[in-house]
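Obj: model holo form, ligand = zinc ion.
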Amino acid sequence: MIRYCRQCVMPDTKPDLSIDAEGTCSACRYYERRQDIDAPARKAELLQIVDRFRSKDARGYDCVIPVSGGKDSTYQTLRMLELGLNPLCVTATTDKLSALGRRNLDNLKDLGVDCIEVTPNPALRRRINRLALTTVGDISWPEHAAIFTIPVRVAVQMNVPLIVWGENSQHEYGGPAGAAVDSVLTQRWLQEFGGLLGMRVSDLVGQDGIEVRHLIQYTYPSDDELRRVGVTGIFLGYYLPWDGYGNALYAQAHGFETYNKPVEGSLVNYENLDNLQTGIHDYFKFLKYGFGRATDLACLHVRRGRLAREDAVRVVRLHDGKFPWVYLGCRVEDILRDIDMTLEQFIAVCDRFTNKKLFVCDARGALVKDRDGNLAKINYDNP
Ligand SMILES: [Zn+2]
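Output (holo structure tokens):
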């Protein structure tokens, strides 16, 4: 039986999340503590940091901003421009970019910034997608490796010490205490919390024809290189009030486009709009841990008083963890063809990564699915 937080709807199966004696999860506790933050002091701290790192002679950039074109990176870019900085935006091209994602990235550039877009070999990327899906159950492994590595590489190459990341995902999504204290993104943070599931870049070498020379863009700079430039990565979400919905509203006022309906498997239309493989990524989270993107979003809105908990339980049940037949209008078969996998093979991989303790099985222990291939959880709330 899954145990759920009694304030939000987060399950205790989420890695690194804990539920305390009163039944409240660590992410809700973090959010409570956040209300006591001295916001003006945090803002002042940010201004100090920015001044320390600002380019002295205007020949270099003031900071690097890792951007996807999404609501958060649009918001980060706007905030840095408002502080009078001259940022260099860096995009690690996503796995399978949607047309909407491309428009939003172009919109971000039009805010008035220089942007470098780094595209690791797409043909090889698809091989890594397939390998990661079949070995660690995460098609988006190369995505996570690239988005946390490429901006750091560019910072080193361009001699820009300050990197301005968005939010620390270990905060509001819940994570070990040590991860939530840090306002700084380091290589250690990436390895522990960047979603790499214990698979290292070096583990790919020798598999499916992958060689060391193919992995340059996935390779983190050395400590010596980082020290030489003095690379420091900060989370903007630590210094400024951070709410995905608010960020989306602000980004929309500056040309950011949303999807024409809530994204499949989600509750909202304003995030995860760029990578067509995200539906598969989110589905595997559901198979392993019994919750998907709808749960994440419901929790954010419950904590901010925008959704009642009882309604959250209902809408999560409606939308979470449905078989990802379509994502942003793209059929799963079309996504799988890219990575050279049939639908039957995909379903077999899904079953292999499904935690059977969380889902209804028949008398012989086989997973019970409806005619659309959807699983049923054993429990959707606390009894
Ligand atoms: Zn909670």
